[in-house]
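Hey,

The postdoc asked me to send both predictions to you directly instead of through the lab channel. I've kept everything plain text so nothing gets mangled by the mail client. Protein one:
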Amino acid sequence: MRVRQILTTLAALALVAGSFVSSAQAASAATYDERRGPNYSQRVILTYDGCPTSLTAFKTVLKYAKKKNDGLVLAPTGRCLAKYRERNGVDLAKLARAHGQYVINHSITHPKNFDKLSCAAVARELRAPGVVTNFGRPPYGKLGGSVRCGYKKVGMKPWNWTGYTKDAQGKSKAQVVSAGAKLAKPGATILMHMGWKAFNPDAIAKIKAGLEDRGLRVCRAYRGLDNRGAIVTSPRKLPQRLPC
């Protein structure tokens, strides 16, 4: 009789523990930080919005990032992608993914009044010729009811940033490098732009060095979900948890 009671008690405890773990897992899975995006690691993500100044500049950064095993997040606009397709016959998003980099949406036209658009209008801005994927950077970081509605409508999550270097305000490379290193905390997303002074191997190397001085490392290039082996083409739709 006593054995039966013990077994019953143990079974009840196991059920409670299982329910607790399931609840914790569900809560964890449901938690999404719109500033950190799908980065649940302690590594810092360097992100670049907008449009590169040239195809050469873009390729130089991609080759450097792949060589150094750095996983950058690139957010070109649809207009930028269309321009390079027409002018150079190159798909920037596809090229970046081939180098193990992560590419997210940044709207088609980058409207200043993004948060004033209707849900349907926001959704239209998130479609082709922009990057068609599952995460996107709202223009100017603007969020609101209609913006979130538009993202939900196209099956995309907004991803902003935790720190901005203000490079697009005309800051020097030294200022941007300093800001990029100082703003970051574990798991941070740092905002920069492809058309300004931070989008080059030297700036990236110096930002990384500044981060490493503070005990921080940047996200790694895509090597599959297990983060092992050689760098491979990153998926069009990003993993819900980046393998940084």
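Protein two:
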Amino acid sequence: MRILIVEDEIDLCDSIAEGLRIDGYAVDTCHDGEAAFELVTVESYDLLILDLNLPKMDGLDVLTEVRKQNKDIKVLILSARVSVSDKVLGLDLGANDYLAKPFHFEELEARIRNLLRRKFIQEDSILTFCKLSLDTVKRKAYTKENELLLTRKEFAILEYFILNKERVISQEELMAHVWDSNADSFSNSVRVHIASLRKKLKAEFTYDIIQTKIGAGYLIRKRGDM
């Protein structure tokens, strides 16, 4: 999942970004409202973490403009404005959640998990597919009782496949949602990580659950669907 953090307190922004990257998310950052609106317009984000007291363009104005163009992106306001009127206004303008500063990082993580699950009508923190179980809190994958030793990027790819298991996922879409803006779109990074993930999954399933659709992308399939 790909997240944009908009926060003008640079140290706080970097700290949140580092923590979320450790959790396995692809994270971009910016520090003013105009840059935030531009990024949301041209990039594909699953979640926007938005401060309100921003230079150049207020956070509520950013939210208003974003919602005119993008109804799907999840927006979590993270702000020192703690009045009920600010919270009500932010939610009425289209935010999905509102967390006041100061905050505990563990609560931010939980709210992010909840928001991203809502997109896929997923009520449990455990994602399942065949005999696979993905614990999205601990960021660990299992087949029955065995833990799969996946890298953070491999886990993120597998999570995205399971959340979108009904359709073909292109390399471009994976790059947009699993990698951050520093990724080289012309590299073979997607293919390298897919190959490594396939090898680990095939050792457990004895068949390749990640199918390649030539010219289109990848699809995760059960044996009976092949």
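Summary for protein two, as requested: Residues 189-205 form the longest helix (17 residues).

Thanks,
C.
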